[in-house]
Amino acid sequence: MTQNQMLSNKIKIVTECDRLGFLESNASFYSKYSSFTLKALGKKSFQNFLGRMLTIEHIDETTVNTIDINVYPAPRKNGNNIAGKCNISKGKIRIYPKPIKFCIFFKNKFGKNTLFAYAGNRARAALIHELLHLKYANDETKVRELTKTYFSAYSGRRPQQNSNAMLIYKLLFLAGKF
Ligand SMILES: [Zn+2]
Question: Ligand 1 centroid vs 155 CA: distance in angstroms?
Answer without folding.
Answer: 20
